Structure formats: structure tokens, C-alpha cells
Amino acid sequence: MAAASTLSLALTPTSSDPSLPSSRHRSRLFLSPLSHNPHFLSSQRSRSPPSVSDEPTSSSASAAYSSLEDWLKTGNYNFLSNEELLKLQSLQDFRYRRELGIGSLCIRVMRPDETDVTVKLLSESFVESMKLPDWYLPLVSYLVKQYLFERRAAIPHAVTLLGFVKWKDGGGGGGGGGGGEGELAGTVEICFNKRGANDSPPTPTPPKDSPYICNMTVNKPLRRRGIGWNLLKASEELISQMSCVREVYLHCRMVDSAPFNMYTRAGYNVVKTDSILVLLLLQSRKHLMLKKLPVPTNDLELEMSGSDPEHVQVGA
Fold it and tell me: Which residues lie within the region annotated Disordered (predicted)?
């Protein structure tokens, strides 16, 4: 598998306090999943560094989010409908577990107190894949943190997943995070519908009313161990539970053969490719890829996906 995916930043701050989600998700951070898009920082306005004084900092902070009530205290969720509250509960309960050669992998929704370790993983991935000098890292980290704060407003219509590995031999690769769950191995973002979509996604533009997988990266010491594949599978499993739409989109850079092969093996097909004119904007050409997930086959799966048999979009 290729090195970690690359970020594409386009930032337009919309609120003076990043701890309060904005009504419109104008801050945009895109990582074509395990692919590369070298467009960087198309717009930025000056803004004071994000305040995280309201974020838990102790190693046991994850215990603070053990209930839906505590989860709701971490964001502006006062106006969620009953259906959205049920989806929020489903997100909190979601677990994807697999046994790998190196140990046990658990993928779940990122908790608010895990923002810093996620920022570190994403920022280092961007700087590495773009071959930027190390002095870019603080700026990139600031932008990524701002993006993650503001994307909270999209929950439960979009969410960030984290994967943790608990090593068989008790060792580790230096990724940190996770506490008793193990070491942070990777992350991926999912947009379930139009309300969770970013205002300006990368080109070729995917339909905003369809699920979209993006911002995937794997901790460098843990690459080529099946973690990227399982992040993809976990994303598809969660989409099947959270959305009745079966068409799932993602981007892949044309030059990234290993990720492209992985997506093809997983059932994704190219539906559109960037024009050669994007090279004039110093961007790499990308494929937009599509997979049609299987239709739920029993009442339990239909109930979990919140869909009605007559309204399920049947894949060809």
C-alpha cells in the first residue's frame, strides 16, 4: 500500500471561536483517500489559534464520553431531531474489529478528546507526502485542528473514524493515543449525505447527496499491514448502517497505482477523471471512483440503515 494519503487544504474561517461549530462548513480539508492532491492553502484569513481549553487532556479523558448525554455536552447538538439523536447514538456505539498479523484492530468514531493525536497524524502525513520542509508542520497542524473543530457541526451527517491496534507482543510503532485500546493506526472521514458534505469538494466533484470517503491516512510505521483496507471496509459498513444511499464515492490520484489497485480490488470503478487542465493549477489529476454497496438483505439490516425496501437505491 502507498504511503499515507495527502491533504488538500482550502480554509475559510467562519467563526471567532473554533470550539463552537459554525452553521456552514466552510473550512475544508481534503485527503483523497490514500492518494495525492498537491493543491495547498488556496485561501486563508488571519485567525487566533484555536482554543482547546474545554477539551479533556488527561489520559483517562475518554471515560468522560461514556454516555450519549456526555457526548452531547461536547458540541452544539441542542437542535438535533430524534432521528439524528438515534444516529448519534449509533455512531457512538459503532465498532469494527479485525484480527491482523500484528494484533487486534478496532475502528470507531473519534472522540473530542482525541483531536490532538488525530491532528498530529494528519499533519505529519501531509507534510511528508507533499515533501514540505519541517517548518510547515505548525501551520498545517493549526489548519487541521481548526478543520476538525468545525467539522463537529456536521455530526451525525459526517464523522471521523480512528483505528487502534493492540499489538500481540505488547510492542508498538510509536503512534500514541488510544489508551487501553492500543496505538493509533489510522483515520478516515465519511460524509453520509448532503448535510455532511463540504462546500467545495475536490474535483471531479462527487454528488453531495451520496456518501463520500475522504481524509484517509495510516500511521507510517503501520503501513502495508492491511489497516488502510480495513479503514475502507469499516467506512462502508458504517455507511450501510447510516445511509439508504448505496453509491459511495472517493478520489484517487492517477499516479498512485497501489491505492488505485486497492480500490479496484474493493469494487470501486472510475466514473470521471480530472481534465489535464488541472495541471495548470499545480494539482495532480485525480480519478473519481464509485462503488455500489450491496442492498440490505434482511429486516435487521434495513432497520440499521434507516431505509425502507421501496426506497433503497438498488445497485446495477
Answer: 1-28, 40-59
Residues 6+ apart with CB under 8 A from 276: 285
Dihedral of CA atoms 1, 127, 145, 4 in degrees, nearest 10, equals: 0
Peptide bond between residue 204 and the one before it cis (omega within 30 degrees of 0): yes
Q: Which helix (H) or strand (E) element contains residue 236?
A: helix 227-242
Instruction: Give the E-state strand segments of 121-203 in sequence order.
Output: 158-167, 183-191
CA 198 – CA 208 distance, rounded (Å):
8
pLDDT in tens, 192-227: 999 999 888 899 999 999 999 999 999 999 999 999
> What one-letter code names the amino acid at 308?
D
Side by side, the strands of the sheet bearing 269-273 are 96-99, 103-109, 158-167, 183-191, 212-218, 247-253, 286-292, 269-273
Is 263 tagged catalytic?
yes
- Look at residue 35 and give its three-state secondary structure: coil
CA 94 to chain centre: 15
pLDDT in tens, 16-68: 333 333 333 444 455 444 433 333 333 333 344 433 333 433 333 334 344 55
Nearest in space to 246 (alpha carbons), one of 149, 158, 310, 312: 312
- Distance, in Å, from the CA atom of 181 to the CA atom of 178, rounded to the nearest integer, reads 5
Q: Which of 77, 249, 263, 268 is the catalytic position?
A: 263
Say what the pTM is. 0.75
Q: Copy the grid coordinates of residue 246.
A: 448505496
Q: Residue 176 has what pLDDT?
A: 59
